[in-house]
Design brief:
single chain, 407 residues, mainly beta, 6-stranded mixed β-barrel, 27 strands, 10% helix, 36% strand
């Protein structure tokens, strides 16, 4: 469980979730939760079709390289498939237009742009998915501004437009949306979603007003927060909640950590322990991006070899780190110290169990990234491996992230 260490200046939950002021669009009387459906991952789809190539894993940190280092040594070229999302499982339904057209999207705290596959797109990735057709919406309009969106290992081009977005009882008029024109690579062909709804800060939105910011400007929410519950063991029940928290999804207290840079949901890490022994890796400070658009827990590359060796993982030809499924009881507990509170991850949290044609095997849910934070401190990515253990609240009013033990 989360330790009972005291945390300085913790805001009262009721203060964070206060009522919004009235607006012409009305005020939501309660929070709005969007169910997230579990699908096969892109990697699983490709593996079943014999399309997965050796050394298929790439650095998850490349997703952030253009934003963190637009002109620096980590601003890598982005002309490969969108494989950052290859291991993700959970997507939710939104509708857009008049009459509404419905699509599955990834709710991604690691990016800011909202985009959909559209009828403008002729790439292979747009040949086997539902496509948004702006000509069939009476409320769609566009000023013709184009965009380029890089995700580190892939990118797309498109045109920005505006339409009414519907999210689980919320109607958001004049929401900016990117409509794809090209989606390079073949990885996206195997995706089970049609777009990405970015939930990071507006400074990364390429001039588009992100969905959360539109909700805030129009006072559509009882509180300017959203929260994620990612179900354990991949069962149904995952959800994203806008405007509040779902108290049935967590136990105990919500512990808060301030955002250290308003690009991503980036926070400070003060310590990292293996079996309660401090490693010293964050003695001089570490940073972490809390990212629902990354499936794994990502470790700074300089520590990855040691950590995989410590948990007994060995790399195979696909870049996966294999684990003996029978060894979980002997593997260590990992723990992060965030704003004075310890958040442990047991072996069951960071071990991925796979079933391939009735044969079970296990892999490490930990990968490495070469990308440091902009202040030079080592960078971790707290993806779904971490988020399945901890309910997370993203507070735009106070620029902080809350963590509570998931129910």
């Amino acid at each position: 469980m989360v330790s009972e260490a005291e945390v300085c200046a913790q805001p009262v939950l009721e203060d964070v979730l206060g009522t919004a002021a009235p607006s012409p669009h009305g005020v939501a009387s309660s929070a709005h939760s969007v169910p997230l459906k579990k699908f096969k991952s892109i990697r699983q789809e490709m593996k079943e079709k014999g399309l997965l190539k050796p050394i298929h894993y790439t650095d998850p940190g490349l997703k952030y390289s253009q934003t963190l280092y637009p002109n620096g040594p980590y601003a890598y070229a982005v002309n490969e498939p969108l494989v950052n999302y290859a291991d993700l499982f959970y997507y939710g339904v939104i509708s857009i237009g008049t009459p509404p057209q419905s699509f599955y999207v990834l709710f991604d705290t690691g990016s800011s742009v909202f985009w959909l596959a559209s009828t403008y797109c002729s790439s292979e990735a747009c040949t086997n998915h539902p496509l948004f057709n702006p000509s069939k919406s009476s409320t769609y309009y566009s000023r013709g501004r184009t965009f380029y969106q890089g995700y580190g290992t892939g990118s797309l081009t498109g045109v920005f437009g505006f339409d009414t977005l519907h999210i689980e009882g919320l109607s958001i008029p004049n929401q900016g949306v990117g409509l794809s024109i090209t989606e390079p690579g073949n990885t996206f062909v195997h995706a089970n979603f049609e777009g990405i709804l970015g939930l990071a800060y507006p400074s990364m939105a390429d001039g588009q007003i992100p969905v959360m910011d539109t909700m805030m400007q129009d006072n559509l929410l009882p509180a300017n927060v959203f929260a994620f519950y990612i179900s354990k063991n991949f069962e149904d029940g995952s959800e994203v909640t806008f405007g509040g928290v779902d108290q049935s999804r967590y136990t105990g207290q919500i512990y808060w950590a301030p955002v250290t840079e308003q690009l991503y949901w980036q926070i400070a890490i003060n310590g990292f322990q293996i079996n309660k022994q401090e490693t010293g890796w964050c003695r001089d400070g570490c940073q972490a991006i809390v990212d629902t658009g990354t499936s794994l827990l990502t470790c700074p590359q300089q520590y990855l070899g040691y950590l995989q060796q410590y948990i007994g993982a060995q790399a195979n030809q696909y870049g996966e780190y294999m684990i003996n499924c029978n060894n979980l009881n002997n593997m260590p507990t990992l723990s992060f110290t965030i704003n004075g509170v310890n958040f442990p991850l047991p072996p069951s949290a960071y071990t991925m169990v796979h079933n391939e044609n009735g044969q079970y095997y296990c892999t490490s849910g930990i990968m490495g990234t070469y990308l440091p934070s902009r202040n030079g401190q080592p960078l971790w990515i707290l993806g779904d491996v971490f988020l399945r253990e901890y309910y997370t609240v993203y507070d735009r009013q106070n620029n902080q992230v809350g963590f509570a033990l998931a129910a």
